[in-house]
Design brief:
- This protein has helices at 11-22, 38-53, 100-115, 142-147, 153-156, 166-172, 203-207, 245-266, 303-324, 343-355, 370-374, 401-419; strands at 57-60, 66-70, 81-86, 123-128, 190-198, 211-217, 219-228, 232-233, 271-281, 287-288, 291-300, 327-335, 339-340, 360-364, 380-385.
- It is an alpha/beta fold.
- The strands form 3 sheets. Strands 1, 2, 3, 4, 5, 6, 13, 14 and 15 form a 9-stranded mixed β-sheet that branches.
- The longest helix is centred in the middle third of the chain and has 22 residues, at 245-266.
- The chain starts with 10 loop residues before the first helix and ends with a helix.
């Protein structure tokens, strides 16, 4: 592999930036930088200082995202704009690279353009999208949702267990705290939205590939499943008369896994189903469980596969309900359609990787990203870089400065390509 990507991006500078942000964490729970937390505010301050040092004009937009803009020369007519962005918030006890790698890659593009004294014929925005990670208000991608006109009153009025209203928190950090009346007013002038991210799986590492070019971001659907039986004394309630909600729930969990495995084997696109949250009532060692509440997380690149899964799960749950004499209710909480990345931008990214001597493959994303929402209003694309062992959302999450530098070089080369 030809390593002339280093003429575009500096791994040492990347490493310093990643470590500086990694230090901005809850001390007893690395790496934790929850949206709106003191650690998040310090990270925002650090990033704004780096933006300003690089000559960017900074602002907090109406949705609470931090934007640093490198303006096109004043003589440019109808310059348009390109967005490169990701996020600095994390999940609890998350990793050092999820989101951070993408923001640092955007800064690398600015450093390169400044060092080479290159003026682009369009504005370039580097964006820290607000609250990409799922939060205590139950909604991810706050900043990109607002830009796309998808952040509603219903979402903003949500209150967490400490009494904090989401809209008030956004207003506190510089946004308006109000719903978007539509996509950002200049959406038609956005030429491209680009994001670099760690893969969060091990395909690139296993196959020793430098760059993954994302084909689509799956539709993410979440369902509440409630199983209602009868609580009873564990010592006196006879086995044949029990209406054990946990036994019924266990059967549903196993059934969901088997249906998902069958569909995934038939569909060569991304499909996964997970029941990862479960609450048992009364949850006592000497009590037959009377109620179970679960959350089903369903991610599919093919909406037909999603619908087929739910049809089969409903039928299987009805049979389980009859057999175990428990009531089963399934209710949709949220649903987002598949987001397809722009073909023309994907081709540009592939040409840029070829120019740099970097290997690349097409990949479907398993996780949600801000580009899913930005793709609703502008051409959007993502690149993945290798992630060791596929570990993510945990302190063991790891990529390398060289891997980020390779990805940054692809973004920079694509900017130059678009600039002609």
């Amino acid at each position: 592999m030809t390593k002339h990507f280093n003429t575009y991006s500096e791994p040492n500078r990347i490493a310093e930036a990643v470590e500086a942000l990694a230090e901005l964490t809850e001390p007893q729970r690395p790496f934790t930088r929850l949206v709106f937390s003191p650690e998040f505010s310090r990270a925002r301050q650090w990033l704004q200082e780096r933006f300003e040092a690089a000559g960017l004009e900074c602002q907090i937009d109406a949705g609470g995202s931090l934007i640093g803009t490198r303006k096109a020369p004043a003589a440019s007519e109808s310059p348009g704009k390109i967005i490169i962005g990701s996020h600095v918030d994390t999940v609890p006890a998350g990793g050092r690279f999820d989101g951070i790698a993408g923001v640092v890659a955007g800064l690398e593009a600015i450093h390169f353009l400044n060092a080479q004294r290159i003026d682009l014929p369009f504005d370039l925005e580097i964006v820290d999208f607000l609250g990409e990670e799922l939060n205590v208000w139950g909604t991810s991608c706050l900043g990109s949702r607002h830009m796309a006109g998808l952040l509603t009153d219903d979402i903003l009025d949500r209150v967490d267990q400490d009494g904090r209203r989401l809209g008030d928190e956004i207003e506190r950090i510089g946004g308006t705290g109000k719903p978007a009346s539509g996509p950002r007013p200049d959406a038609q002038s956005i030429l491209a939205c680009l994001e670099l991210h760690i893969e969060q799986s091990d395909r690139l590492e296993t196959d020793q590939i430098d760059i993954g070019i994302v084909t689509d971001i799956p539709g993410i659907s979440r369902y509440s499943i409630t199983v209602t039986g009868s609580a009873g004394h564990s010592g006196t309630t006879r086995m044949e008369g029990r209406r054990d909600a946990l036994v019924t729930a266990s059967d549903i969990i196993m059934t969901a896994r088997e249906i998902a495995r069958s569909i995934a084997a038939q569909d060569n696109r991304h499909f996964v189903a997970t029941i990862g949250r479960i609450e048992v009532y009364p949850n006592g060692a000497a009590t037959v469980p009377g109620e179970v509440k679960m959350i089903l997380d369903l991610r599919a690149s093919n909406e037909h596969s999603r619908d087929m899964f739910m049809e089969q799960l409903h039928a299987a749950s009805l049979e389980t309900s009859r057999r175990e004499s428990c009531d089963v209710g399934i209710e949709r909480i949220s649903e987002a359609s598949v987001a397809h990345m722009d073909d023309a931008l994907r081709q540009r990214l592939a040409r840029s990787a070829d120019h740099l001597g970097l290997s690349h493959i097409n990949l479907s994303s398993g996780a949600g990203h801000d580009m899913a929402h930005m793709s609703r209003i502008a051409p959007s694309a993502m690149i993945f870089i290798p992630c060791k062992g596929g570990l993510s959302h945990c302190p063991e999450e790891l990529t390398t400065p060289d891997a980020i530098a390779r990805g940054s070089a692809v973004l920079i080369r694509t900017l130059l390509d678009m600039a002609g």
